[in-house]
Design goal:
Helix content is about 30%, strand content about 15%. It has helices at about 35-50, 75-80, 125-130, 135-150, 165-175, 200-205, 245-255, 280-295, 310-315, 345-370, and strands at about 20, 25, 90, 105, 105-110, 110-120, 125, 205-215, 225, 230-235, 260-265, 275, 300, 320-325, 340. The mean pLDDT is about 95. It binds zinc ion. Zinc ion (ZN) binds near residues 31, 67 and 335.
Length: about 375
Amino acid sequence: VMGNPNDWREGLSPWTLTEVGERWYGRGAADNKGQHAINIAALAAVHKARGGSLGFNTKILIEMGEEAGSPGLHALARSESAALKADVLIASDGPRLSAERPTVFLGSRGAINVDLTVNLREGGHHSGNWGGLLANPGTILANAIASLVDKNGVILVEALRPKELPAAVREALSDIHLAPGPSDPHIDRDWGEPGLTPEERVFGWNALEVLAFETGNPKSPLNAVPPQAKATIQLRFVVGTDGKKVVEAIQAHLDALGMSQVKATSARMDIFAATRLDPTDPWVGWALASIARTTGKKPALLPNLGGSIPNDAFSEILGLPTLWVPHSYPGCSQHAPNEHMLASVVEEGLRLMAGLFFDLGEDGPRARREA
Ligand SMILES: [Zn+2]
């Protein structure tokens, strides 16, 4: 992530940690140097409190390439699987649900971008002379998209929809209430899968987005039948949808409708896999109980993030139960000018991580046996 020092507020810099009231500004303060620092300091505190031992063995992995698609992370997990063998992954990234509420999440949605192209002929042809004689790629593409997702954002293709919303996921989400900040857009409550709450739609279900769509020249339309049309769509998906089969499923669906002129191809972005530790896994209850004891608050349990992280390197390749405890908050401006950490979240994060690591030395083995 670039620093863009000129875009930061007067007196702030991406390169110098600057404290202003409750906020600690700097690039990576929230994502992710601050979060690593909290976890390492909490380990040090437990090490000291136990007189020079943690009470468990630990391996620390700091991933430096996550913003660039984690080059090498999956290969490393494969080649070093013996060295990285463990009972549980405890990691930190991303925001809490709110600044006030400690949060645990168990995985992330997957993501894949797909290009849809209709390329019928060379060059445009005058719509007066040719309109009615030539198939229009824009019309075909609009209909192709409409066959994938309806006007309310409901996904129409079975292979692109989750099989189910598991009871344990629904139960966890019933305790989550999204509260957009003052500068956030309004949630469209009628958008997406009917019968689901907004929280279930973003954390428990798939979403298909049209990211871009072009035919002809939108800035200066010509009276011509355009020769081609192109759109990029994106599927965010939960566990149960295989990202590697999405392109194939879309093409098969279009072929079956007689729209084989539309070609579905994987766009350049990497495919992120969907992951989610079962919310009923003993490690989950263990972590929630520890955090509740330390903070006196009921932590939010997110079955998975709405966004995407390469958690499959840990959950699938290494086969670890994955517990993520984020130490940032939604207004932290990660990746943007004025990125900052909140002192109150740092302080609570230090306490709850020290508690979690201390408890790991006390009753971690019990969670391991039950898992
Ligand atoms: Zn980031």
